[in-house]
Amino acid sequence: MRLSRRSLFGWLGSAAVSLALRSPASAEGASPTVTPLPGFTGPGANPYWNGVNPFVTYPQKLPLLRVTDRAVQLETPRPYFLSPFTPNAAFYVRYHLELIPNAIDLRTWRLSLEGNVERPLQLAFDDLVKTFRPVSVAAVNQCSGNSRSRFQPRVPGAQWGNGAMGNALWTGVRLKELLAAARIRPGTVQLQFQGLDRGPGPEGKGADVVMKSLDLADPALDEAVVAYLMNGEPLPMLNGFPVRLIVPGKFGVYWTKHLTWIRALTREDANYWMATAYRIPDTPRGNTTPADAAGGALKTVPIGHVRMPVRSFIVVPDGSSKLLPGLPVRIQGIAFSGQGPVLKVEFSEDDGRNWVGATLGSDHGPYSFRTWEHTWTPARPGRHVLAVRATDRTGDVQPDAPVWNPGGYLWNRVERQPLVVGAAS
Ligand SMILES: Nc1nc2c(c(=O)[nH]1)N[C@H]1C(S)=C(S)[C@@H](COP(=O)(O)O)O[C@H]1N2
Ligand SMILES: [Mo]
Predict the structure, then answer these.
(1) What does the alpha-carbon distance between residue 244 and residue 384 come to, in Å, rounded to a whole number?
(2) DSSP single-letter state for residue 109
(3) CA dihedral 50, 54, 57, 62 (to 10 degrees)
C-alpha cells in the first residue's frame, strides 16, 4: 500500500489528467460465436454466462462486452473471475447518462460537503489523500441488474449476463471522517451523493443528473469509503475517477462515480433515482409476479433497503474444454454476499440433487469475492449439469427458484454449468 500511495503522489505531480475517449467503433471486434450445447433443456440449459455481445475497447480498458454504448455499459468476460480481484482494465462499466467526463483537472476539482452541515467543505484531491487517514477494504461492486437476461418473463433494462460485477481493493477515506469534519447538523435524515455525469436519462426522466441517497442511520455508512485507489491504482475514468463512493454490501447503484457532491438532507430524497427507479417489491427476496406488478398496488422500497443476497459462480470449466470419464477436473469459481462472509460453498455434479462441500480459498474480508474449488471426476460420458450454491453468515443460501420483479433485480439463483463428457476411447 505504501508503494502505491507513493506512486500516486508521483502521478499527482503530473497535474491535470486527461483521457480522450476515442470512438469505440474503431476498436470494435467481431461478435463472439456462442453455440448452445446440443440437447440441453430446462434450467441448466443456458450456456450464456455472459451476455452475447461484441467485444469493444475503451480507454484504459481491455476488450469488454458491449451491452449498450449510449449510455456506456460494458460487461466483464467470464475468465477474469478466476482471480479474486478483478483487474481494473477488465472491470465492468455501467452509466445511466450519456455525457460522461473524459478529463478532470485535479487542480480545480473539489469534493463538496454541503446542505445541513455546520461547516461546508470544499476538499481538494490533495486534501483527501494527505489530510485523512487512508483505509482499504476489499468489496464486490455488483449492479442490481446483474444476470437480468435470466428473467422469465423477460424484463426491460440492460440484458446483463453474469459479468456486471467485480471485486477490488478500494483505498480512500472513511465517509464518516468527512462527515465529522463537516459536522452534520441535527435534523439530517439522509445523505445524497452526486457525480459529474449528465444527460437526459431514460425517457427524458432523471433530472439530468443521477443522485442516490442513504439514510444517515444506515449502518452501511459506517463502512462506506470515498475511494481514490482501486487495486492500488488511480480509478479508471470509466469506474469513477478521481473518487467514488463504495458502500460494502450494497448494490453498485449507491457507489457514486466521479463523486463531487455529498449533501445532508433534512427530508427524504424524492428525486427520480430514489422515488421511481431502483425500487424493489417490499416482499421476501423482492419477489413478485407479473400480475401483481401490473396491478398497481405493489408496495416498493428503494433497493438500498437490502444488501446483496448471497451468490456463487462456476468459472471453469465453461463447456469449452475436453473432458473425459475418469479424468479429474478442477472446478473453480467465486462466491460472495453483501450480508457478510460466505461460510460455505457446495458443489453438485447432478443438477442440484446431491451436494458436497467445496474448498474455500483465501479470505480477503467479508465483502470480497471468495474463491472456491473442487476436484470432480466424471464417472461416465455424456451430458452433465454441474451446480453451485453458497451460504452466508446469516444462513442465507441460494434458492433454486428464480426471482421475478419488474426491475430485473436481485437474481441469485443456484448457478449451473452444462457439460458434455466425451467417450474415453
Ligand atoms: N456518477 C455515476 N455513478 C454511478 C452510476 C452512474 O450512472 N453515474 N451508476 C451506478 C450503477 S447503477 C452501478 S451498477 C455502478 C457501476 O460501477 P462501475 O461502472 O464502476 O462498474 O456505478 C454506480 N455509480
Ligand atoms: Mo447498476
Answers:
(1) 43
(2) -
(3) 30
Full-model pTM: 0.91
Note whether 376 and 349 are within 8 A (CB). yes
Same fold, 1-304 and 311-421: no
Residue 320 backbone dihedrals phi, psi, to 5 degrees: -95, -15
pLDDT digit string (tens) for 188-233? Answer: 999 999 999 999 876 666 669 999 999 999 999 999 999 999 999 9
Whose cell is 475514468? That residue is 237
Is 145 close to ligand 1, i.e. is its CB under 6 Å away? no
May I ask the CATH architecture of the domain 311-421?
Answer: Sandwich (2.60)
Residue 425: DSSP 8-state: -
**Hey, how many other C-beta atoms are within 10 angstroms of the C-beta on 7?**
14
Domain 1-304: homologous superfamily in CATH? Oxidoreductase, molybdopterin-binding domain (3.90.420.10)
Is the shortest distance between the CB of 226 and ligand 1 below 6 Å?
no
308 CB under 6 A from ligand 1? no
Q: Is 39 exposed, middle or buried (0-12, 13-18, 19+ CB in 10 A)?
A: exposed
Residues of 265-303 as b/e, b for ≥16 C-beta within 10 angstroms? Answer: beeebebbbbeebbbbbeeebbbbeeebbeeeebebebb
Q: Which ligand minimizes its atom distance to the CA of 88?
A: 1
